[in-house]
Specification:
The chain is of the alpha/beta class. 49% of the residues lie in helices and 10% in strands. Strands 3-2-1-4-5 form a five-stranded mixed sheet. The chain starts with a helix and ends with a helix.
């Protein structure tokens, strides 16, 4: 037998062995699905009490039903499978994560949902809500005759401030996201009115970006620079520059009038601090004590914007932060009864 024939035979044997090994690898990669898969029953928010719904989702049943109806066109599954996730499950799963900041909590509370499915639900929910941001976050037209913030400080159009949301260190340009407190964050600019309703959000700048630079490069600054305001302005803290439409505190007051100006300014601006605190309490995913968000900067900005929208929905429906239980009311009523009896 010639050397050429032997060489050809060896090549064929090696190729057949390689094909057999590839088939074995492919067979190992295939996942086994039983003929009759068992799906766990999914819980519905309608089966919970109003108190449980508010504690778990930070919205009441009517608000959640409204979100399902409004976002349904974006969240409905295109697949024809009988076990596709319903819109209500996607909405409540995303709300649970935003309220708790944990996929594990959301997975446990919404039975039948895997963590990967939870991640997909959150992504779809954030994108759908972002498309409708203009319906819920609207800056008022700066007209002097319009009604504005009800405070003892005259002519307040809105309260300006910032809020840092912690995130994991990005793989690119990591130093830009390290803020003055030495952790990675996004610097979110927020404007609210005297009732705590958020009327403007700028969510796109890294944590190292100063507040003044965020404002200077925002559409809000361009709008107010070109507007003719007569006795109307925003209020901001010392991290912002003094402008004709932005009043900041006086660094070194030297007269009773300046001291009163600072006192009234601080009192009016306290509403913004309360709003940011309530936002973190209502949506624990924004609170650094619950851990940094494990997402890209773009996704973190989407999460923050969604929380602001949901915050406004909660305020518009006058929903309390925590629903007082009937048991707690009964305990307080018994104490009141004791005091009443002691007075007679």
């Amino acid at each position: 037998m010639s050397e050429a024939v032997l060489l050809l035979r060896r090549v064929r044997e090696r190729s057949s062995e390689g094909a057999t090994g590839a088939r074995r690898k492919r067979s190992r990669r295939r996942r086994f699905y039983p003929e009759h898969r068992v799906y766990r029953a999914r819980s519905s928010f309608l089966d919970l009490s109003e108190e449980q719904v508010l504690r778990r989702y930070r919205l009441d049943k009517a608000a959640i039903a409204g979100l399902c109806s409004e976002l349904g066109s974006d969240l409905e599954s295109l697949t024809g499978r009988s076990h596709a996730l319903p819109v209500a499950v996607k909405v409540t799963s995303a709300l649970t994560f935003l309220a708790s900041g944990s996929f594990q909590t959301a997975t446990r509370d919404t039975t039948g949902i895997s963590q990967s499915a939870m991640s997909n639900c959150l992504a779809q929910f954030l994108e759908a809500l972002q498309r409708r941001a203009a319906r819920y976050i609207t800056f008022p037209v700066p007209v002097p005759t319009a009604g504005h913030a009800e405070s003892r400080f005259p002519g307040v159009l809105g309260l300006l401030g910032s809020m840092h949301v912690a995130l994991r260190a990005p793989s690119e340009n990591e130093l830009a996201y390290r803020n003055a407190r030495n952790y990675h964050s996004m610097n979110m600019q927020v404007v609210c009115d005297s009732h705590g309703t958020i009327i403007n959000v700028v969510a796109k700048y890294p944590g190292s970006c100063p507040n003044a630079a965020v404002l200077e490069n925002s559409a809000l600054a361009r709008l107010l620079d070109g507007a003719r305001l007569d006795g109307l302005w925003l209020l901001g803290d010392r991290s912002y520059p003094l402008k004709t439409w932005l009043m900041t505190p006086i660094l070194f007051p030297c007269s009773p009038g300046e001291e009163k100006y600072n006192a009234m300014h601080q009192e009016a601006l306290s509403v913004l601090k309360q709003t940011c605190t309530l936002l973190k309490m209502r949506f624990r995913c924004l609170d650094k004590s619950s851990g940094s968000l494990q997402y890209t900067p773009q996704k973190v900005c989407q999460i923050f914007l969604a929380c602001c929208i949901l915050h406004n929905i909660a305020l518009s429906r006058r929903m309390p932060f925590v629903q007082i239980s009937s048991e707690a009311r009964a305990v307080r009523a018994r104490i009141v009864q004791r005091f009443r009896e002691s007075l007679t």
